[in-house]
Amino acid sequence: MAHEEKTGQKVEASLITWRGMITKLMSAIFSDRDGFEMNATLFQDTIFLEENHEYKLTSQARQSRQVSQPGRPSQDMMSFWGYKFETLCLLPATWDETPREYIENRENEIVNNHAQYCSVVRTGIGQHIMILGGEVDAVWDSKPTDDGPINWVELKTSADIRNDRDMVTFERKLMKFWIQSFLLGVPKIIVGFRTPEGILKRIEEIDTASIPSTVKRQGKGTWDGNMCINFASALLDFLRATITEDGVWRIRRKERAPGIDVFRVEETGHGDILSDEFINWRIKLAMKQQDAEKEAALAQT
């Protein structure tokens, strides 16, 4: 909305959502273990899509009740390792602007998962223009002051690869890593490989664009980047053909289910997906554009 207020023009897009939603849709063709639920609504010929928060909370509660296998760390512990890796890798400013004391004391810094960049991009898959927002871990150098490209970096952790089974597990992770970075135009991913006890063993820098070809050439054939894109394009075609009226629609993939269900759960309105402030702004903007078009037509007569 801030961008539209600045430009005075409506943002034209088939879909507006978070990167995480498209990541789930793109990876669905090769990943059916985890289910998902999303809510969607159509407003001014744009589909707005968000996670079904009730489903997310239920899933998180179920995961928290699961007991880890003996000798294996809990999900909370592995999340902590990931945030600790970020704390060790990142600085609040460029190297020359950061005090030596802070640099040398990073091992003792309290882990914080709130410090993130938020990137908003206009991109497309197939015939569909999308506005996506998503969190990004860092920039390689510093954010440019102009509108030039940003050297975003994503930080990931993974268990070190010791055998073929570990390789397959990591290859499946690479699919999510690639999709997440591909969608926001993140050129580089840094992966920290750890022991089962959480000790960092090595670091690898991966060029995002090279991941699909590397997996195809050297991997176990667990996924294909072109198929992910083509599947997402076809699925977006289906959503555009299905979600054609007001109301709130549910997009659901049950765990280990072969298909994705799309159905309407509220006949009217937009649920909690769109705020009243945004709807009122769009209505006012449309009225202004109509008035401007009338004035332009009168000027030509």
Automatic annotation (TrEMBL):
<dbReference type="GO" id="GO:0000166">
    <property type="term" value="F:nucleotide binding"/>
</dbReference>
<dbReference type="InterPro" id="IPR013961">
    <property type="entry name" value="RAI1"/>
</dbReference>
<keyword id="KW-0479">Metal-binding</keyword>
<comment type="similarity">
    <text>Belongs to the DXO/Dom3Z family.</text>
</comment>
<comment type="function">
    <text>Decapping enzyme for NAD-capped RNAs: specifically hydrolyzes the nicotinamide adenine dinucleotide (NAD) cap from a subset of RNAs by removing the entire NAD moiety from the 5'-end of an NAD-capped RNA. The NAD-cap is present at the 5'-end of some RNAs and snoRNAs. In contrast to the canonical 5'-end N7 methylguanosine (m7G) cap, the NAD cap promotes mRNA decay. Also acts as a non-canonical decapping enzyme that removes the entire cap structure of m7G capped or incompletely capped RNAs.</text>
</comment>
<dbReference type="GO" id="GO:0034353">
    <property type="term" value="F:mRNA 5'-diphosphatase activity"/>
</dbReference>
<dbReference type="GO" id="GO:0046872">
    <property type="term" value="F:metal ion binding"/>
</dbReference>
<protein>
    <recommendedName>
        <fullName>Decapping nuclease</fullName>
        <ecNumber>3.6.1.-</ecNumber>
    </recommendedName>
</protein>
<keyword id="KW-0539">Nucleus</keyword>
<keyword id="KW-0547">Nucleotide-binding</keyword>
<dbReference type="GO" id="GO:0110155">
    <property type="term" value="P:NAD-cap decapping"/>
</dbReference>
<keyword id="KW-0378">Hydrolase</keyword>
<dbReference type="GO" id="GO:0005634">
    <property type="term" value="C:nucleus"/>
</dbReference>
<keyword id="KW-0694">RNA-binding</keyword>
<dbReference type="Pfam" id="PF08652">
    <property type="entry name" value="RAI1"/>
</dbReference>
<dbReference type="GO" id="GO:0003723">
    <property type="term" value="F:RNA binding"/>
</dbReference>
<dbReference type="InterPro" id="IPR039039">
    <property type="entry name" value="RAI1-like_fam"/>
</dbReference>
<dbReference type="GO" id="GO:0000956">
    <property type="term" value="P:nuclear-transcribed mRNA catabolic process"/>
</dbReference>
<keyword id="KW-0540">Nuclease</keyword>
<dbReference type="GO" id="GO:0004518">
    <property type="term" value="F:nuclease activity"/>
</dbReference>
<dbReference type="GO" id="GO:0005829">
    <property type="term" value="C:cytosol"/>
</dbReference>
<feature type="domain" description="RAI1-like">
    <location>
        <begin position="2"/>
        <end position="278"/>
    </location>
</feature>
